[in-house]
Amino acid sequence: METYADRKNRLVRDLAATAGAPPRLCKDTSNLFRDRAPGPRRRLDVRAFNHVLAVDREAGWVDAEGMTPYAALTEATLAHGVMVCVVPQLKSITIGGAVAGVGIESSSFRHGLVHESIEEFEVLLGDGSVVLARPDNEHADLFFGFPNTYGTLGYALRVRAKTVPVRPFVRLTHVRHTDPRAYFAELERACGTDADFVDGVVFGPAEQVLTVGRFVDEAPYASDYTYERIYYRSLRTRTEDYLGVHDYIWRWDTDWFWCSKNLHAQNPIVRRLLGRKRLNSVFYTKVMRWNARVGLTRRIDRMLGKHPESVIQDVDIPIERAPEFLEFFLREIGILPVWICPFRSPDAGRRWPLFPADPRKLYVNFGFWDVVRPDEPHPPGHFNRLVERKVHELAGIKSLYSDAYFTPDEFWASYDRAAYEALKARYDPNRVFKDLYEKTVLKQ
Ligand SMILES: Cc1cc2nc3c(=O)[nH]c(=O)nc-3n(C[C@H](O)[C@H](O)[C@H](O)COP(=O)(O)OP(=O)(O)OC[C@H]3O[C@@H](n4cnc5c(N)ncnc54)[C@H](O)[C@@H]3O)c2cc1C
Prior knowledge:
Elements: H1 4-17, E1 23-26, E2 42-45, E3 52-56, E4 61-65, H2 70-78, E5 82-84, H3 95-101, H4 108-111, E6 118-124, E7 130-133, H5 140-145, E8 155-165, E9 169-177, H6 180-190, E10 197-204, E11 207-216, H7 231-234, E12 240-244, H8 245-249, H9 268-274, H10 281-294, H11 296-303, E13 309-318, H12 322-332, E14 338-344, E15 362-372, H13 382-393, E16 397-398, H14 408-414, H15 417-427, H16 436-440
Parallel strand pairs: 1-2
Antiparallel strand pairs: 3-4, 4-8, 5-8, 6-7, 6-8, 9-11, 9-12, 10-11, 10-14, 13-15, 13-16, 14-15
Helix pairs in contact: 12-13
The protein binds flavin-adenine dinucleotide.
């Protein structure tokens, strides 16, 4: 049996053996939504780094290799009656990708973002050395600087994440609102209670649903949204629900939130034809990438005289400006539904220079993933630019996993250039990896 150390030594040899072009991760899946510009690269095969190494229920942590998808990580931890503090909703997201690319879920109002419940990680650097980054060791700068750097400082090969005990079921209450101001006020109140999970969905200007979840030991029933029934639709018709903890964690993956509609997978006949095993984000992503490659919907849009622009984004807005952002968004973009997820740092004393959230504040993540199809043409990125400017105006933060149109000045006005350059100088002095702006905006 190959060990983690064996895999690590082999990868270090692979990296040393292939000098020259910037490395690129060779992984089974990716949740990046920006096409990379063509150019020379050397593929670094990290697919074998997908093992859960140890779960210590008493000490409250799990050790896993960096490319372990959350589906496998959750399977392993639930077997010990625990889960990692924050499990992003899509089964293929990996723990290393969620640290490097920032991850969030409905427990984030209590535990913060994924990187805020990580105890340590080992990073493969461009010179082939592997360092251990902890908040209390000589690489604390890398520990706090790594989140939101998208693999431009190195690759996380092993990650130790905090775990919390689970109980067999989650009881959900769905509260409907018709006024966004009252909705966000109640969302803020819910984040001050003993709830275990808080998130929600905006279905329209007069329809917002807040979902509060609590662990329970017993349930009169457990709903199943893994096949015929569709979770997000239940929010519009039910005020209460019970799910098994595993099904609660993956409630959004079966329909990729609601994005399965783009494949007509919410049509009962299509759903039966696809079958249970294809109803997941990994399958939809593959179909979406094929469609983007062959340009099928693009051609149909053109025939219909539409000018499509893909707007797939997660943006984080301070709670007090959330109604303003929603009002702008419904007026200018209009993609619906929108996922709503609050987060607050569990430790106001910690700063993450490349993810500039104010640790004292409660933020609301707005997730919207679809295509805007106006009748009149616009410059490339027109609607994404509108979003970027509004987020900046409201002192918010835009995720970098998808398209970005910032100028260098706008970008570095949001992300701490001095801190980033200091990290690059120490951990990637020979610029083996691209820089953050080149990778996330220029798509290099
Ligand atoms: C429709 C949609 C919905 C989303 N919803 C959510 C959500 O609800 N919650 C959430 O948390 N996230 C969400 N995301 C964002 C997603 O979490 C991030 O894009 C995340 O970075 C993806 O992780 P991955 O493991 O798939 O990595 P990839 O997509 O493969 O890589 C993401 C980036 O991280 C780098 N990277 C990957 N692995 C490592 C590593 N081990 N070390 C260093 N760098 C690495 C890659 O080079 C790349 O730049 C969503 C994305 C999409 C498209």
